[in-house]
Amino acid sequence: MHWTGVGAFLSPLVSQTLRARGYTWRGFFWISLGLAITNVAFSLFAFRTTPEEFQIEKQLALASQALRDATNKNKSDVETETPGSSECPVNSVSVSRILAMPYVWTIALFLGVYQGAETIAQGFIVTFLLHERVSDASFCGL
Predict the structure, then answer these.
(1) Rounded distance, CA 121 to CA 126, Å?
(2) Is the pTM of this model over 0.70?
């Protein structure tokens, strides 16, 4: 089951419930912000680097740097550099080249349609409850 649509489904219901109980619309966003901050804190705690992992990463980085330096030293001993040549060619990708890629437009179109559908679903739930079920905005059956 994909959990991405659960928030789109429950968010208007929770918002309507809080509104019916007398909270202002800001209360819903403060609660959402608090949950988001809690989520970030738990994620940072869960994926923190342990001291052992830090030492391993440090040793790998130092070994990689030493290998790169040794390889560059061997290359400079063997090759003679021609005037005007650079050691590292610059890979410049302009925005116009990125926008010319068709898969960038495909992904943008998909995300736009997905977000639009999610927003429409949120609005539909509240509209359906208020108009078709003849609900009162100050009443909540949850």
Answers:
(1) 9
(2) no
Q: Is residue 57 a contact partner of residue 44, using CB atoms and an 8 Å limit? A: no
Spatial CA neighbour of 9 closest among 112, 124, 113, 115: 124
Assign 3-class secondary structure to the chain.
CCCHHHHHHHHHHHHHHHHHCCCCHHHHHHHHHHHHHHHHHHHHHHCCCCHHHHHHHHHHHHHHHHHHHHHHHHHHHHCCCCCCCCCCCCCCCCHHHHHCCHHHHHHHHHHHHHHHHHHHHHHHHHHHHHHHCCCCCCCCCC
- Residue 18's Cβ-count burial label (10 Å; 0-12, 13-18, 19+) is middle
Q: To 5 degrees, how large is the angle CA 64–CA 65–CA 66?
A: 90
Question: For residue range 56-105, what is the model confidence (pLDDT) as tens digits?
Answer: 999 999 999 988 888 887 766 555 555 555 555 556 678 888 889 999 99
Q: State the amino acid at position 132 in one-letter form.
A: E
- The Cβ-side half-sphere exposure at 111, using a 13 Å CA radius, reads 6
